[in-house]
Structure formats: C-alpha cells, structure tokens
Amino acid sequence: MVFQHLKAWNAYENNNFEIYFWRSRGIVEVDFVLYGEQGIFAIEVKNSDKIRKQDLRSLNEFMSDYPESHTIFLCRGKERLFKNNILCLPCDEFLYALHPDKTIQDILNY
C-alpha cells in the first residue's frame, strides 16, 4: 500500500523521484529509496506498533553508505520521534500527509 501511494504521489505531482529498494552486501534491505533532485530518502515500513533497535538496522546501514540521505521509519505506532537521526512516523500519518500538492519535505514536516 505504501508503494502504491508513493508511486501515485510521485506521478501525479511530477516529483521526478526514481523509486528503488536497496540491499547491502550483508543482505540488509530498505523497502523504498526515493532518489531525485530533492535528495535521497530511505523508507522502511514495519507492521509493528513498537520500534525495536533491529528494525532500524537497515536504515542505519543505509545512512553509513549515504550520509546525505534522509531516513524514515514507518510503523503502526502513535507517536512521531527521532531515533538515531531516523524520523519515526505512524504509517497512517505519513500516508495522510502524502498529498499531491506536497513536497517530500512538506510531508516530513507535517
């Protein structure tokens, strides 16, 4: 569902992001990587209401390879917070903010 919303938002507003997934040599994966003129954004999605240290491992590894990136962790939790420079958001809040007239920065500052 997150992919469908990202793809529609990207196409509708012509944000010109390429959407990828990422895998390290150690087989750690990030669900979505948005790459474009606005920057690099890595998004990990978990079907959990808690944020565990191991859930953030892939984003931490991504940041070590791409320190200029913005990292986002989406889950079923209820609060917005930062953990190790990773923005943790409730998935429903992110999807609600993913409006066609919003940039990715607008969405993250929502």
Fold and architecture overview:
With 110 residues, the protein is α/β, with parallel strands linked by helices. The protein has a single domain, classed as Trna Endonuclease, Chain: A, domain 1. Helices cover 30% and strands 32% of the residues. It contains four helices and six strands; from the N terminus they run H-E-E-E-H-E-E-E-H-H. It has a six-stranded mixed beta sheet with strand order 1-2-3-4-6-5, with helices on both faces. A hairpin with a 2-residue loop joins strand 5 and strand 6. It is globular and about 35 Å long.
Relative helix content: 25-40%
Radius of gyration: 13 Å
Which second-level CATH architecture applies? 3-Layer(aba) Sandwich
Number of helices: 4
Given helix and strand content, the structural type is alpha/beta
* Order of strands in the sheet with most strands: 1-2-3-4-6-5
Largest sheet: 6 strands, mixed
Shape: globular
